[in-house]
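It would be a great kindness if you could assist me with a short task in structural biology. The matter concerns a single protein, recorded as an amino acid sequence and a row of backbone structure tokens. The record follows directly beneath this note:
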Amino acid sequence: MELLKLENNVRFILAVVKGEIIVSNRKRADLYVELQTKGFTPFPKKAKAVEPEVAAATDDTEETEVQKENERQSKG
């Protein structure tokens, strides 16, 4: 799989340098279509892990609640 990605990268760079593929001032979707017609293998991005973000958000919420409670106690 890594070898296929590297081969795709080399082919893409060479095609851009030779002028076979124009990258500038193009929509990404149009470029993807051209790459697929020229035989490039698409590699979908891996989904980001949702759990660490949720855990971090929960921790922040808990800290905020603790801070608010401490402020209430110090005022009252």
